[in-house]
Design a protein that fits this description.
The chain is mostly helical. The protein has 2 domains: 21-109, no CATH class; 119-160, no CATH class. 68% of the residues lie in helices and 0% in strands. Helix 2 (53-74) packs across helix 3. The longest helix is centred in the N-terminal third of the chain and has 26 residues, at 22-47. The radius of gyration is 18 Å and the shape is globular. It starts with 21 loop residues before the first helix and ends with a helix.
Length: 160
């Protein structure tokens, strides 16, 4: 497992210090992520009244990318070397496909069912890591996968 911050797209030019260092900063960011993540499908449903899933996904990614870039550059962080840009472009395309399909799914099912399926992402990440990176899940991870699948089935109400 890599260290926090290793492999980051934007490299920090200044070390963390003060009250915003360590776990406290992580908790604040996690809470903010939950707030934004939980309001996202509601705002998407509202935007879908006038915009297509592709337009919503593109707008979302462009706005978020611009905000993150502005904050990072304002903090003195550096862009990655040009040799890493093709991989970053691939990651961007995968994210765009994810958002496009996720947003489209909200037109065909409930927010709860769509999110129940989205919540299986860690399960698939573990399985794809095993397949593509040869990182076999440990016994505790298999237990976590089984619990996650059970939880998603309960949340979805065993509906198809």
């Amino acid at each position: 497992m890599s260290e926090p911050g290793k492999g980051a797209v934007l490299q920090s030019a200044t070390p963390d210090a003060g009250v915003w260092s360590g776990a406290r900063r992580g908790y604040v960011f996690a809470i903010l992520a939950v707030i934004f993540f939980s309001t996202s499908p509601i705002l998407i449903r509202w935007a879908a009244e006038t915009l297509s899933p592709g337009e919503i996904a593109a707008g979302r990614l462009l706005l978020a990318g611009g905000v993150v870039l502005a904050i990072a550059l304002g903090r003195g962080e550096r862009l990655p070397p040009a040799r890493r840009w093709p991989v970053l472009a691939l990651i961007g395309l995968v994210a765009a496909a994810h958002f496009g399909f996720y947003i489209a799914s909200l037109n065909f099912t409930t927010i709860a069912h769509s999110l129940s399926i989205i919540y299986t992402a860690p399960v698939f990440a573990a399985l794809f890591s095993w397949w593509l990176l040869r990182e076999a899940p440990r016994p505790r991870q298999w237990l976590g996968i089984a619990l996650a699948v059970t939880g998603v089935a309960i949340m979805a109400g065993f509906d198809a």
